[in-house]
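Collaborator request, handled under Task 6.
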Amino acid sequence: MYAINCRHFDGYKPCSKSEDCSENCPHFEVAGCRILLVHLGAMGAVLRSTSLLPAIRRKYAKAHITWVTKPHCKPLLSNVSMIDEVITTNREDLDSINGIDFDVALVIDKSREAIGIAHSLNPGQWFGFKMNPINGGIIPATEAATRLWELGLNNNKKFFENRDSENRLVHTALELGSYQNDEYIVDFSGPEKAVIESRRDQWGAPHRPIVGINTGCADVIRYKRMPVELQRKLIIELLKYTDARIVLLGGPGDKTRNEQIAYGLDVVSSPVTAGTRDGMCSVAACDIVFSGDSLGMHMAIGMKKWVVPWFGPTCAHEIELFGRGRKVLSMASCSPCWKRECNKAVMCYDQVIIEDAIEGIKEGIKWTQNKYSSSKPPLLEMPY
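Structure tokens returned to the collaborator:
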């Protein structure tokens, strides 16, 4: 008897778990409900939403989870075993799930595109955000999402009254039960782990911690990116206090910036043009990561690094470090603001106290030394 009711069954060929597509397969598992999770972007937020997966699995036993996201976000979800299928917003991908009856939709994005995708698939239940059919405005799908929705409409509530992390807020909005502070889920393939090991060997030395400086961010709020001069100042001061190996991290748009930052300094420039997964390998090779509120920060949090993020335009309280890091806040009186454009003579990054960042990194070095007693730290310590 073919296992057409197994949650791994696709009817085209045996799944990757076995060559025996029958109920005798040791991996046979009767499919529970079908979950449609829609989170299209931004990249850091998508990675953060992997922390929802354990709670989804607790609430919906043996569920089959289909995650819809933007094509450029798909690499972030590679190798995450709690997701059964990752679908992009490409028309061909969406067509491939058009005939599936989804029992539950979890719509995280407050966007018409995300809501429209869920609406086209006509799920049985709906949590998160929906659209007002009269005027197209975004509204809570259930009462539980009202607080998160209101925070987006009221700056005073978002910036000053709210103290909850975005992890907790989204968890509550999706009605996923008691909040258990679940961590992000990041994992690597065997070849990727070999790359990480190789970079650790190249960059570090026994008992010498590796400090990653994530220099870039997306252009949506480009003021989360420290200027070259300030990055160099941080590194110069840091080299006075520690023998840690300093590695510059970033994405394709940071190649020239990193060359400018590295000029004349004893630092390593990591490869930044080989794609998202390769960038994740570079972050994984570090012990400590200093970053703005960006994808690199979320990567480091997900990989259980000691993270020292600085905050200016965005809300520090929305980020959960899980006890592994120290937040550095700009002294700007207008912070946070979430503005995409700013013409102030003195910017929020100019008002970050570099000494606070250095202290946070030094704490991370002590944390690393206490955490690892062997000459070389283990590659990764993942919760799942």
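The cover message to the collaborator said: "The CA atoms of residues 264 and 276 lie 28 Å apart. The mean pLDDT is 91. Please let us know whether this matches your experimental observations."
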